[in-house]
Design brief:
Elements: E1 5-6, E2 9-10, E3 13-14, E4 35-36, H1 43-58, H2 75-89, H3 101-114, H4 116-147, H5 150-165, H6 172-179, H7 183-207, H8 211-219, H9 224-258, H10 267-276, H11 280-308
Parallel strand pairs: 1-4
Antiparallel strand pairs: 2-3
Helix pairs in contact: 3-11, 4-5, 4-7, 4-9, 4-10, 5-7, 6-7, 7-9, 9-11, 10-11
C-alpha cells in the first residue's frame, strides 16, 4: 500500500516526514511515490496581489451621483434667468406678452418703494403660515392615531384615502357655502391640502417600521411613552420630512388659488388685478415672489432634515 509522504524538497530528494520503522513495508517495485508539494511563501506574489487589489479599489466605477457642490441647486434657476434675459435682449420675446428681466426688476422696485409689494407679501405669508401650521398638526395627529391603533386605522384611513383622491381645490364651492369667502375659508383650503400630504407620508412611515423593533420594545418592557420616543419618532421622521416638504408646496399652491377668490389683498390678488390691465411685469413679479418663497422654504426644510437625520447615509449626502 502506498504511503502518503509529506516533507520539503532538499537537494532534489524528498525527505519523509516520519522515518519508517521496523514494521514499515518498502514500496513495491513499480509503484509511484506521491509526495505533497510544500507550501512556499512568495512575498513578491502577495505584494503584487495587494497592490492589484488596491489599484482595483481606486479605479473602480462610481455609481453614486457624485460629490455635492455648495449652492449647486442655484445653477438651474440662474441658467433659466440667463436664458430669459438673453431672449429678451435679442428681441425674441414680445414685451407685451412676457416682460424682460430688466422691466420686472424696475417694476419690483416701484412696488417696493410704494409699499404695495411688502403689504401683499406679509398677508400671503400669514395665510400660508396658518394653513401650514394647522395642516401639519392635523396630519401628524391623524397619522399617529391611524398608525398606532387598529381602531384608528379602521376609522380614519378610509375617509382620508378618499379625501386624497378629491383635490382640495375641488371642494372650494362647498367650503365657500359653509365658511363664506373670508379668511377662514382661505386658511381651511390651504390646511386641507397640507394635512393630506402630511398624513399620507407620516402614516406610511409609521406602518413601515420594522416589527422586530416593536418586539424588542415589548421584550424590554418599555412603556407607551418610551416606545413612542425611542421607536416611533425615529422611525417616522423620514416620512414626516417628506410630507412636510410636500405640505409646504401644497400651501403655496392653495394660496395662489384662494387669493384670487374675492380677495382684497395678497400676491394672488395683486396678480389678478394686473391681469385686468395686461400688466405682465406685475404678474411676473408675483410669480417670482411665489417661486422665491417656495424655493427658500423647501431649502429650509432640507437643512432641518439633514441636521435631524444626520445619522442616515443617503445619496443626498
Amino acid at each position: 500500500m502506498t504511503e502518503l509522504l509529506t516533507g520539503a524538497r532538499t537537494a532534489g530528494r524528498v525527505k519523509p516526514a516520519v522515518a519508517p520503522g521496523k514494521d514499515a513495508k518498502p514500496p513495491e517495485p513499480g509503484t509511484p511515490v506521491t509526495a505533497a508539494r510544500p507550501t512556499v511563501s512568495r512575498p513578491g506574489v502577495s505584494r503584487f496581489t495587494a497592490s492589484r487589489s488596491t489599484a482595483s479599489r481606486s479605479t473602480r466605477r462610481r455609481l453614486g451621483p457624485g460629490r455635492a457642490v455648495p449652492f449647486g441647486r442655484l445653477i438651474g434657476p440662474v441658467l433659466v434667468i440667463a436664458l430669459w434675459w438673453s431672449a429678451s435682449a435679442i428681441g425674441y420675446l414680445d414685451p407685451r406678452i412676457l416682460s424682460g428681466p430688466g422691466t420686472v426688476i424696475s417694476t419690483a422696485s416701484d412696488l417696493i418703494a410704494s409699499g404695495r409689494l411688502q403689504d401683499n407679501v406679509l398677508i400671503s405669508l400669514q395665510r400660508a403660515g396658518l394653513g401650514l401650521l394647522f395642516g401639519v398638526a392635523a396630519g401628524v395627529l391623524l397619522a399617529v392615531a391611524a398608525g398606532l391603533s387598529r381602531t384608528g386605522e379602521y376609522l380614519l384611513d378610509g375617509p382620508l384615502q378618499i379625501k386624497r383622491a378629491i383635490p382640495s381645490l375641488a371642494m372650494l364651492p362647498l367650503l365657500i357655502l359653509w365658511l363664506g369667502i373670508g379668511e377662514q375659508m382661505k386658511v381651511t383650503v390651504i390646511a386641507l391640502g397640507v394635512a393630506v400630504s402630511m398624513y399620507i407620508n407620516t402614516y406610511a412611515s409609521l406602518t413601515g417600521i420594522d416589527s422586530r423593533y416593536v418586539e424588542l420594545a415589548e421584550g424590554l418592557d418599555l412603556s407607551r411613552a418610551q416606545f413612542v420616543r425611542k421607536v416611533v419618532v425615529p422611525g417616522s421622521l423620514p416620512g414626516f420630512f417628506v410630507g412636510l416638504r410636500l405640505g409646504v408646496t401644497a400651501s403655496w399652491l392653495g394660496l395662489i388659488v384662494v387669493e384670487q377668490i374675492n380677495a382684497t389683498s395678497g400676491i394672488g390678488y395683486m396678480m389678478f388685478q394686473a391681469q385686468q390691465y395686461a400688466q405682465s411685469d406685475v404678474i411676473i413679479v408675483g410669480l417670482v415672489a411665489y417661486g422665491i418663497f417656495g424655493f427658500v422654504s423647501d431649502a429650509a426644510v432640507r437643512a432641518v432634515e439633514r441636521r435631524v437625520l444626520s445619522w442616515r447615509r443617503t445619496l443626498a449626502g
